[in-house]
Amino acid sequence: MKKKILLIATGGTIASKRLEDGLTPLISSKELLQYVPGVEQFCTVDAIQILNIDSTNLQPEYWLDIVEAIKTHYCDYDGFVICHGTDTMAYTAAALSYLIQNSAKPIIITGAQKPIDLDVTDARTNLYDSLLYACHPSAHRVCLVFDGQVIAGTRARKVRSKSYNAFESINYPPLATIHDGRVIQYIHDSNFTSYPAFYETIRPSVFLLKLVPGISPDILSVIAQQYDAIIIESYGVGGIPSDSKRDFLSEIDRLVNMGKIIVMTTQVMHEGSDMNVYAVGHVAKERYGLIESFDMTTEATVTKLMWILGQTDNPQTIKSMFYTTINCDILFQE
User: Which residues pair with 95 in a beta bridge?
Assistant: First the structure.
């Protein structure tokens, strides 16, 4: 029996046409389906349009619109494919992983580096592969399908700005690959409920600060005026600058006493953080009880904090929820 899939269009390059000012999303959800003949052999597809934007304009509130669309139609379909712009796709994949948890039905996010109406494009293959994978018996939860790779929603990152192999799975193997219409599943999961947990609240009061040599610690007090949580993207395995010229420790002490949430991550893409390696990390973490992202991606760290802050203000609960593995997002747990 054919699977029934809902295509949810949000715009992005895959749905763009070239205008005088550059590529602009204009192709509708139903028009997208016209470019993937053959999918009717293994599924029936309905299409809806909830946004038609360049993903640079994506806002956290739009994630909730996607969640609402999936929740409304969850019982009517066997799987969902979301067409999305690539620039913020990894953030959306991670956010949906927290907002829709333990889904036995696949929620696939895809897009393209070239519009679907061009003669030479990756869009048709990516959309076809996504619909194909949405029908696979081992397909569950939120994941990203791009250039033949199936990546857990919390592990995707855009690593190339123009090439077709734009996304990689960071610190975790791909769930599956797709070649010539054949799915090769590497990782199988069975920990799914009959109906997923949907979350409808999120607090985007999260700031990501990338350390560079010479940055002033005074910036933290400025950020704290508007944000409840600050993620510090440090160097290497992670540390806090404590040189006498620019000492961050006193500012962090003040922010922690104010109740601000401080999370440490690393600018290095692979292998994650480990603040216990060097004194500059160990002292700061032990003294202030900082949360550490370890092997999580920055995209997952940001969106997980936004989701958590939407559920609680309690610092200990925030820490406990952060270290709870969701959709393969963290291997190390405190």
Answer: none
